[in-house]
Amino acid sequence: MIKSVRAQSYKYSLKLVGRVLLVIQLYVISYTFLMWYIILIIAVLIVLISIRQINQYEKGLKFLFGKFYKNMEPGWRLVWPIIQGYERVDMRTKAVDVPDQNAITRDNVSVTVNAVIYYKVVSAEKAILEIENYRYAMSQYAQTTMRNVVGEATLDELLAGRDKIADRIREIVEQTATSWGLEVLNVELKDIRLPEAMERTIGKQAEAEREKRAVIINSEGELAASTNMAEAARKLSEVPGALHLRTLQSINDISSDQSNTVVFTVPLEVMQAFTGFLKKKEN
Fold first, then answer.
1. What is the dotted CATH code of the domain comprising 94-194?
2. Can you give the pLDDT at residue 198?
3. Secondary structure of the chain in the HEC alphabet?
4. Taking the model in full, what pTM does it have?
Protein backbone atom coordinates (compact mmCIF):
# COMPACT_ATOMS: atom_id res chain seq x y z
CA MET A 1 0.00 0.00 0.00
CA ILE A 2 2.72 2.41 1.03
CA LYS A 3 4.83 1.42 -2.00
CA SER A 4 1.96 2.12 -4.41
CA VAL A 5 1.39 5.55 -2.90
CA ARG A 6 5.07 6.34 -3.20
CA ALA A 7 5.08 5.17 -6.81
CA GLN A 8 2.12 7.33 -7.68
CA SER A 9 3.70 10.33 -5.91
CA TYR A 10 6.93 9.76 -7.80
CA LYS A 11 5.11 9.61 -11.14
CA TYR A 12 3.17 12.76 -10.29
CA SER A 13 6.40 14.53 -9.37
CA LEU A 14 7.98 13.51 -12.67
CA LYS A 15 4.95 14.78 -14.60
CA LEU A 16 5.06 18.06 -12.66
CA VAL A 17 8.78 18.51 -13.31
CA GLY A 18 8.26 17.73 -17.00
CA ARG A 19 5.52 20.30 -17.26
CA VAL A 20 7.66 22.88 -15.50
CA LEU A 21 10.59 22.18 -17.83
CA LEU A 22 8.27 22.40 -20.84
CA VAL A 23 6.95 25.74 -19.67
CA ILE A 24 10.50 27.00 -19.08
CA GLN A 25 11.56 25.78 -22.53
CA LEU A 26 8.60 27.46 -24.20
CA TYR A 27 9.36 30.65 -22.28
CA VAL A 28 13.00 30.56 -23.38
CA ILE A 29 12.02 29.95 -26.99
CA SER A 30 9.47 32.77 -26.91
CA TYR A 31 11.96 35.11 -25.27
CA THR A 32 14.64 34.24 -27.82
CA PHE A 33 12.22 34.77 -30.69
CA LEU A 34 11.10 38.06 -29.19
CA MET A 35 14.69 39.22 -28.79
CA TRP A 36 15.57 38.35 -32.36
CA TYR A 37 12.41 40.10 -33.52
CA ILE A 38 13.34 43.23 -31.57
CA ILE A 39 16.91 43.10 -32.90
CA LEU A 40 15.57 42.75 -36.46
CA ILE A 41 13.26 45.73 -36.01
CA ILE A 42 16.10 47.80 -34.56
CA ALA A 43 18.39 46.82 -37.46
CA VAL A 44 15.73 47.76 -40.00
CA LEU A 45 15.17 51.11 -38.28
CA ILE A 46 18.91 51.83 -38.22
CA VAL A 47 19.15 51.05 -41.94
CA LEU A 48 16.15 53.25 -42.71
CA ILE A 49 17.47 56.22 -40.77
CA SER A 50 20.91 55.71 -42.34
CA ILE A 51 19.67 56.16 -45.91
CA ARG A 52 20.68 59.48 -47.47
CA GLN A 53 19.65 60.70 -50.91
CA ILE A 54 22.14 62.51 -53.14
CA ASN A 55 20.38 64.25 -56.03
CA GLN A 56 21.62 64.15 -59.61
CA TYR A 57 22.92 67.73 -59.45
CA GLU A 58 24.77 67.10 -56.17
CA LYS A 59 27.80 65.29 -54.84
CA GLY A 60 28.38 64.13 -51.29
CA LEU A 61 31.36 63.78 -48.98
CA LYS A 62 31.33 60.99 -46.37
CA PHE A 63 33.23 61.32 -43.09
CA LEU A 64 34.23 58.40 -40.85
CA PHE A 65 34.97 59.33 -37.23
CA GLY A 66 35.29 62.96 -38.37
CA LYS A 67 37.82 62.24 -41.15
CA PHE A 68 37.13 62.47 -44.87
CA TYR A 69 36.38 58.97 -46.11
CA LYS A 70 35.19 59.09 -49.73
CA ASN A 71 32.97 60.90 -52.24
CA MET A 72 29.30 59.98 -52.60
CA GLU A 73 27.75 59.78 -56.07
CA PRO A 74 24.04 60.60 -56.77
CA GLY A 75 21.52 58.05 -55.50
CA TRP A 76 20.67 56.41 -52.17
CA ARG A 77 23.66 55.98 -49.87
CA LEU A 78 24.06 54.58 -46.35
CA VAL A 79 25.54 56.83 -43.66
CA TRP A 80 25.69 55.03 -40.33
CA PRO A 81 24.71 57.17 -37.35
CA ILE A 82 27.26 58.30 -34.77
CA ILE A 83 30.33 56.93 -36.56
CA GLN A 84 29.71 58.54 -39.97
CA GLY A 85 28.61 61.93 -41.29
CA TYR A 86 28.21 63.55 -44.69
CA GLU A 87 27.98 66.87 -46.54
CA ARG A 88 26.16 67.62 -49.81
CA VAL A 89 27.45 70.07 -52.42
CA ASP A 90 25.35 71.60 -55.20
CA MET A 91 27.26 71.28 -58.48
CA ARG A 92 24.99 73.53 -60.55
CA THR A 93 26.01 76.95 -61.89
CA LYS A 94 25.43 79.71 -59.35
CA ALA A 95 24.97 83.45 -59.75
CA VAL A 96 26.40 85.85 -57.17
CA ASP A 97 24.92 89.32 -57.20
CA VAL A 98 27.66 91.75 -56.24
CA PRO A 99 25.88 94.70 -54.54
CA ASP A 100 26.60 98.35 -55.28
CA GLN A 101 30.21 99.24 -54.57
CA ASN A 102 31.43 102.81 -54.23
CA ALA A 103 34.85 103.24 -55.83
CA ILE A 104 37.13 106.01 -57.07
CA THR A 105 38.67 105.70 -60.52
CA ARG A 106 42.28 106.46 -61.32
CA ASP A 107 41.32 110.00 -62.42
CA ASN A 108 39.56 110.65 -59.07
CA VAL A 109 35.94 110.24 -60.14
CA SER A 110 33.51 108.63 -57.69
CA VAL A 111 31.39 105.87 -59.27
CA THR A 112 28.96 103.21 -58.07
CA VAL A 113 29.33 99.82 -59.75
CA ASN A 114 27.48 96.52 -59.37
CA ALA A 115 28.00 93.21 -61.14
CA VAL A 116 27.02 89.54 -61.27
CA ILE A 117 29.40 86.56 -61.19
CA TYR A 118 28.58 83.11 -62.56
CA TYR A 119 30.52 80.17 -61.14
CA LYS A 120 30.18 76.48 -60.32
CA VAL A 121 31.81 73.90 -58.05
CA VAL A 122 34.20 71.56 -59.87
CA SER A 123 35.70 69.88 -56.77
CA ALA A 124 33.26 69.13 -53.96
CA GLU A 125 36.12 67.97 -51.73
CA LYS A 126 37.97 71.32 -51.90
CA ALA A 127 34.76 73.34 -51.59
CA ILE A 128 34.06 71.70 -48.20
CA LEU A 129 37.54 71.02 -46.81
CA GLU A 130 39.44 74.13 -47.98
CA ILE A 131 36.91 76.90 -47.22
CA GLU A 132 34.28 77.26 -44.49
CA ASN A 133 31.53 78.85 -46.62
CA TYR A 134 32.46 79.15 -50.28
CA ARG A 135 29.31 81.11 -51.19
CA TYR A 136 30.02 83.88 -48.69
CA ALA A 137 33.73 83.85 -49.50
CA MET A 138 33.06 84.21 -53.23
CA SER A 139 30.70 87.15 -52.64
CA GLN A 140 33.14 89.02 -50.39
CA TYR A 141 36.16 88.39 -52.59
CA ALA A 142 34.27 89.54 -55.69
CA GLN A 143 33.30 92.82 -54.01
CA THR A 144 36.88 93.57 -52.97
CA THR A 145 38.28 92.67 -56.38
CA MET A 146 35.75 94.83 -58.22
CA ARG A 147 36.64 97.89 -56.13
CA ASN A 148 40.36 97.35 -56.74
CA VAL A 149 40.01 96.87 -60.50
CA VAL A 150 37.75 99.91 -60.89
CA GLY A 151 40.30 101.98 -58.96
CA GLU A 152 42.99 101.03 -61.49
CA ALA A 153 41.03 102.34 -64.52
CA THR A 154 40.07 105.82 -65.64
CA LEU A 155 36.46 106.86 -66.15
CA ASP A 156 36.75 106.69 -69.94
CA GLU A 157 38.26 103.20 -69.75
CA LEU A 158 35.50 102.10 -67.39
CA LEU A 159 32.71 103.39 -69.61
CA ALA A 160 34.19 102.32 -72.95
CA GLY A 161 35.85 99.04 -71.89
CA ARG A 162 33.34 97.33 -69.62
CA ASP A 163 34.15 93.94 -71.12
CA LYS A 164 37.87 94.39 -70.41
CA ILE A 165 37.15 95.39 -66.81
CA ALA A 166 34.87 92.37 -66.37
CA ASP A 167 37.51 90.02 -67.83
CA ARG A 168 40.12 91.47 -65.48
CA ILE A 169 37.84 90.84 -62.47
CA ARG A 170 37.20 87.27 -63.64
CA GLU A 171 40.92 86.52 -64.00
CA ILE A 172 41.75 87.77 -60.50
CA VAL A 173 38.82 86.00 -58.82
CA GLU A 174 39.51 82.75 -60.66
CA GLN A 175 43.11 82.62 -59.44
CA THR A 176 41.93 82.28 -55.84
CA ALA A 177 38.68 80.42 -56.53
CA THR A 178 40.58 77.55 -58.17
CA SER A 179 42.12 76.64 -54.81
CA TRP A 180 38.58 76.45 -53.38
CA GLY A 181 37.44 73.98 -56.04
CA LEU A 182 35.44 76.63 -57.93
CA GLU A 183 35.42 77.69 -61.59
CA VAL A 184 34.44 81.25 -62.53
CA LEU A 185 32.44 81.12 -65.76
CA ASN A 186 31.67 84.77 -66.43
CA VAL A 187 31.56 88.25 -64.89
CA GLU A 188 29.17 90.96 -66.09
CA LEU A 189 29.07 94.60 -65.01
CA LYS A 190 25.38 95.43 -64.68
CA ASP A 191 25.37 99.16 -63.97
CA ILE A 192 27.78 102.07 -63.59
CA ARG A 193 26.30 105.14 -61.90
CA LEU A 194 27.98 108.55 -61.82
CA PRO A 195 27.32 111.63 -59.65
CA GLU A 196 24.70 114.01 -61.07
CA ALA A 197 27.25 116.78 -61.60
CA MET A 198 29.46 114.42 -63.59
CA GLU A 199 26.48 113.27 -65.68
CA ARG A 200 25.67 116.88 -66.56
CA THR A 201 29.32 117.53 -67.46
CA ILE A 202 29.44 114.45 -69.70
CA GLY A 203 26.16 115.54 -71.31
CA LYS A 204 27.60 118.99 -72.11
CA GLN A 205 30.74 117.39 -73.49
CA ALA A 206 28.71 115.07 -75.72
CA GLU A 207 26.56 118.00 -76.92
CA ALA A 208 29.66 120.04 -77.75
CA GLU A 209 31.13 117.08 -79.61
CA ARG A 210 27.96 116.71 -81.68
CA GLU A 211 27.93 120.43 -82.50
CA LYS A 212 31.56 120.18 -83.54
CA ARG A 213 30.81 117.31 -85.90
CA ALA A 214 27.80 119.16 -87.29
CA VAL A 215 29.89 122.29 -88.07
CA ILE A 216 32.60 120.15 -89.69
CA ILE A 217 30.06 118.29 -91.82
CA ASN A 218 28.35 121.56 -92.81
CA SER A 219 31.65 123.20 -93.83
CA GLU A 220 32.67 120.11 -95.79
CA GLY A 221 29.34 120.25 -97.60
CA GLU A 222 29.78 123.96 -98.44
CA LEU A 223 33.30 123.29 -99.68
CA ALA A 224 32.10 120.49 -101.92
CA ALA A 225 29.19 122.65 -103.19
CA SER A 226 31.48 125.60 -103.99
CA THR A 227 33.88 123.29 -105.81
CA ASN A 228 31.06 121.84 -107.88
CA MET A 229 29.65 125.28 -108.64
CA ALA A 230 33.06 126.54 -109.77
CA GLU A 231 33.44 123.50 -112.01
CA ALA A 232 29.95 124.00 -113.43
CA ALA A 233 30.65 127.68 -114.17
CA ARG A 234 33.85 126.73 -115.94
CA LYS A 235 32.06 124.18 -118.09
CA LEU A 236 29.28 126.62 -118.98
CA SER A 237 31.76 129.32 -120.00
CA GLU A 238 33.69 126.94 -122.25
CA VAL A 239 30.69 125.74 -124.30
CA PRO A 240 28.90 128.38 -126.49
CA GLY A 241 25.16 128.53 -125.80
CA ALA A 242 25.42 126.48 -122.59
CA LEU A 243 24.63 129.49 -120.43
CA HIS A 244 21.65 130.32 -122.68
CA LEU A 245 20.27 126.78 -122.28
CA ARG A 246 20.84 126.87 -118.52
CA THR A 247 18.94 130.16 -118.29
CA LEU A 248 16.02 128.73 -120.24
CA GLN A 249 16.00 125.64 -118.03
CA SER A 250 15.90 127.80 -114.89
CA ILE A 251 12.99 129.82 -116.31
CA ASN A 252 11.17 126.60 -117.13
CA ASP A 253 11.68 125.29 -113.57
CA ILE A 254 10.34 128.52 -112.08
CA SER A 255 7.33 128.69 -114.43
CA SER A 256 6.18 125.19 -113.45
CA ASP A 257 4.66 126.69 -110.33
CA GLN A 258 1.63 128.75 -111.43
CA SER A 259 1.68 130.79 -108.25
CA ASN A 260 4.91 132.46 -109.37
CA THR A 261 5.15 135.30 -111.89
CA VAL A 262 8.40 135.61 -113.81
CA VAL A 263 9.36 138.93 -115.39
CA PHE A 264 12.37 138.72 -117.71
CA THR A 265 13.13 142.24 -119.01
CA VAL A 266 16.47 141.80 -120.75
CA PRO A 267 16.35 139.96 -124.12
CA LEU A 268 18.79 137.11 -124.46
CA GLU A 269 20.09 138.59 -127.72
CA VAL A 270 21.25 141.74 -125.91
CA MET A 271 23.15 139.55 -123.45
CA GLN A 272 24.79 137.70 -126.31
CA ALA A 273 25.74 141.01 -127.94
CA PHE A 274 27.43 142.16 -124.79
CA THR A 275 29.25 138.84 -124.58
CA GLY A 276 30.52 139.18 -128.15
CA PHE A 277 31.54 142.77 -127.54
CA LEU A 278 33.59 141.77 -124.53
CA LYS A 279 35.34 139.03 -126.46
CA LYS A 280 36.32 141.43 -129.27
CA LYS A 281 37.61 143.94 -126.72
CA GLU A 282 39.77 141.29 -125.14
CA ASN A 283 41.24 140.34 -128.55
1. 3.30.479.30
2. 67
3. CHHHHHHHHHHHHHHHHHHHHHHHHHHHHHHHHHHHHHHHHHHHHHHHHHEEEECCCEEEEEEECCEEEEEECCEEEECCCCCEEEEEEECCCEEEEEEEEEEECCCCCEEEEEEEEEEEECCHHHHHHCCCCHHHHHHHHHHHHHHHHHHHCCHHHHHHCHHHHHHHHHHHHHHHHHHHCEEEEEEEEEEEECCHHHHHHHHHHHHHHHHHHHHHHHHHHHHHHHHHHHHHHHHHHHCCCHHHHHHHHHHHHHHCCCCCCCCCCCCHHHHHHHHHHHHHHHC
4. 0.61
